[in-house]
């Protein structure tokens, strides 16, 4: 029951060609491209939309420049969808487009879309077999490059919000859409997951920057090698890394961030914690370290 996954994200951009090149390099599948619109797809069938210039069909942007304008969430069925539409529509306008997707805004002004979750197109891909003394999984099988990295799915979205009104911003998703707070980091923000996904978080509202804007969209990769090689490929293509390779504390996933020309950053992530209802809500009075580790080197750049 409840929200199952991220269905799509929508960006407005001033340079469509550059953004198309970015997500092509990133490994998403280009479904279609027109003069002012391009659509990409993840391996499970989620979509990422790039729209050139402003768009009257979207709510006003919460920040200037290229940015994320809307996140569309997929409900389990029509009954759930109707309940969510009714819940969000008690005090704000909700519209329905020709494709049956409902649109409104959250407390900060970000666009929120609601639809029935699409069927996953994805055939599961397991991690590469690894060896350690006592647990040998690969014999007479040398490894090679993983090749072109194709992210599996959009696994979470992180949005920056003002400190003023942060409780109401979180309550919109928890009380009306059934999101489950997993880790509340009082100086920083609230991590949440949706009932249909066991990831430790699918959504983060981060109030530490004290302003509204896109932080990042995260894409799951099959494994550690994919995160490293995918990041290397983006650097080779001329894109700028935003953080050193590392492993987060909250969520435990391995990460690599790249600055995105559409606004904010994108993250390649692998090995995220999975949780169930017994995880509860963990409250942190002080912020845990951002990462368990990040890559360090004493070697000079060559």
Give structural notes.
With 302 residues, the protein is an alpha+beta fold. It is built from four helices and 20 strands. The chain has helices at 16-26, 78-88, 166-177, 224-236; strands spanning 3-13, 29-33, 37-41, 47-52, 67-75, 95-96, 102-105, 111-116, 131-132, 135-136, 153-160, 180-185, 189-193, 203-206, 213-220, 246-248, 254-259, 265-270, 282-284, 291-294. It has a ten-stranded mixed beta sheet. Strand 2 and strand 3 (37-41) form a beta hairpin.
What key phrases describe this protein's structure?
single chain; 302 residues; alpha+beta; 10-stranded mixed β-sheet; 8-stranded mixed β-sheet; Glyas_Fos-R_dOase_dom; VOC_core; Glyoxalase
Layout: helices, strands, pairs:
Layout lengths: L2 E11 L2 H11 L2 E5 L3 E5 L5 E6 L14 E9 L2 H11 L6 E2 L5 E4 L5 E6 L14 E2 L2 E2 L16 E8 L5 H12 L2 E6 L3 E5 L9 E4 L6 E8 L3 H13 L9 E3 L5 E6 L5 E6 L11 E3 L6 E4 L8
Parallel strand pairs: 1-4, 5-8, 11-14, 12-19, 15-18
Antiparallel strand pairs: 1-5, 2-3, 3-4, 6-7, 7-8, 9-10, 11-15, 12-13, 13-14, 16-17, 16-20, 17-18
Organism: Paractinoplanes tereljensis
InterPro entries: Glyas_Bleomycin-R_OHBP_Dase, Glyas_Fos-R_dOase_dom, VOC_core
Protein name: Glyoxalase
Summarize the entry for a quick read.
The chain has 302 residues and is an alpha+beta fold. The chain is built from four helices and 20 strands. It has helices at residues 16-26, 78-88, 166-177, 224-236; strands at 3-13, 29-33, 37-41, 47-52, 67-75, 95-96, 102-105, 111-116, 131-132, 135-136, 153-160, 180-185, 189-193, 203-206, 213-220, 246-248, 254-259, 265-270, 282-284, 291-294.
